[in-house]
Design a protein that fits this description.
Elements lengths: L2 H8 L2 H11 L11 H14 L4 H9 L2 H7 L6 H16 L5 H20 L1 H6 L2 H9 L6 H8 L4 H12 L14 H9 L2
Helix pairs in contact: 3-4, 3-11, 4-7, 4-11, 4-12, 5-6, 6-7, 7-11
């Protein structure tokens, strides 16, 4: 089943999201981990931290933009690094409200924020993450820091970012289907 078939309206939102997440298994991040594994790891951490359903779902879908733009040959890697958060949030916006979509949209700037204000955070970033940081705009200016701190979903974005950065060392993860109940509940919350 292709994404063209899925978005034609023949399937429910949960089915569209399930197919998209299955597609994430074919998209690799700079460290070689699939977007699906990375996303399940982030969601697992959010669940383990007793986060709200919205933050669990935001952690689960934070990198869906990599899948959305993976088939577009006109988007170079640089643009994917920079734009995947906004693309993913816009794509998710048809089903979820700001409590999910804003942390997804903001997780790239949350990395820039943390790298600017916390040297120990910046020093723990791997080579691929440092390169994407540069592609995503590098360290924030003072004005960018002030503007970011006052955004409504600042804390949620930082939480998703920290889950995003935690290294995945392999091992069994709960499948996407285990998250569908919280996904559905977050959809109904809009």
């Amino acid at each position: 089943m292709s994404m063209d078939t899925v978005v034609s309206g023949q399937y429910s939102a949960l089915q569209v999201l399930r197919v998209a997440m299955e597609g994430c298994a074919t998209v690799r991040l700079s460290d070689g981990v699939s977007v699906l594994q990375h996303s399940l790891w982030a969601a697992h951490q959010a669940l383990s931290a007793n986060c709200s359903g919205a933050i669990i779902v935001a952690a689960l879908f934070h990198d869906i933009g990599h899948f959305v733009c993976a088939g577009d040959p006109e988007l170079a890697g640089y643009h994917r690094d920079r734009e995947h958060a906004a693309l993913g949030a816009a794509w998710l916006g048809r089903w979820f409200g700001p409590s999910v979509c804003a942390p997804v949209a903001m997780h790239v700037d949350a990395k820039r924020y943390l790298a600017t204000v916390d040297e120990s955070y910046r020093l723990q970033l791997g080579a691929g993450s440092l390169q994407s940081l540069e592609n995503q705009g590098g360290l924030m200016s003072g004005a960018e820091l002030r503007a970011f701190r006052v955004l409504e979903h600042f804390d949620g974005a930082l939480a998703v970012r920290r889950f995003d950065d935690a290294p995945y060392h392999g091992g069994a993860l709960a499948p996407y289907a285990c998250y569908e109940r919280v996904v559905a509940a977050s959809m109904m919350a809009i």
